Model the fold of this input.
Amino acid sequence: MKEIEVLVIDQAPSVRTIFRRIISDAEGMTVLGEAETTEKGKQLIDALNPDVVVIGSSVKNSADISELVRRIQGISLPVVILTAPLDVVSGQDHRGRIVSIPKPAIPEGWEALFHQIPALIRNLVRGTEGPAEMPFRETNPKRRFRFVAIGASAGGPSAVCKTLKASGPALQRVGVAIVQHIGTGFESGFVDWLTREFPLQNVSLACHGEVLSSGRIRVAPPETHLEIDPQGAIRLDRTSPPMDGHRPSVTKLLLSLAGTHAEETIGLLLSGMGEDGVEGLLALRKGGGLTLVQESESCVVDGMPKAALAVKAAAIALPPEGLGLFVRQAILDVDR
Done:
């Protein structure tokens, strides 16, 4: 059966990246092209003749979207619109060729789109009726995240810094634990660098027994597993063997949080070689945590994020700045 060819239109690179991932992961679908403006979208519709168009929520001018949709209606091309303006929604094609879905109000909603959008596309293209199924369990939109756990290896320091910077004021609301694979003796230099980059944060190597409270950024010491106990205190382990070939191990940190703190934890797996962190990230996601990985294109080495995506330990993959903004939204939107 011929693959369903999809054209994606959205101004924001991060949103196009998510759409690309959603469609690429769906069986029987492929991204035929991408456009950052409605004008380019019109050109690509004529040039590529896609089976369906997906329009995001970051197009500035709603009148441009309305004009584009009216043009698409004229050629009976199916459309999925994320957070369509009211004038577009009210002008829907009654034959069901245009479907508007709301932009997720909470970060977990983006994960739900990985099931909803492909189902909607299949319904539109194949002419089936009924709403797309939503297999994800309900989550609490007002839950407060307490911890952010970050794992990285080769190429990680820069990615860690960019992610944290984009998280901005959200860092004051959570405790951050970092496992960075780095040569023995270089941990202190990494901590000193982060201290200079984040003068408003309390940055240091992790200390046994210290509570990982809000505003603190703690880095795993050399040759030492870093874990968080049920009370939220740091536990350092220098005697257990390496896990996934590493001590400190990203998986060790994530498993400790998945056990008792899953629903109040955001886990991130950044640039790195191998598979350390994959098992832990999967456990965290199964426990109800929010899990994210760095997209391959922005990684120095994409082994760890790629392995995590392969086992569905995470659904969202973004560049470091996009990850930081996602984390920021997840932490701060609870007060809105």
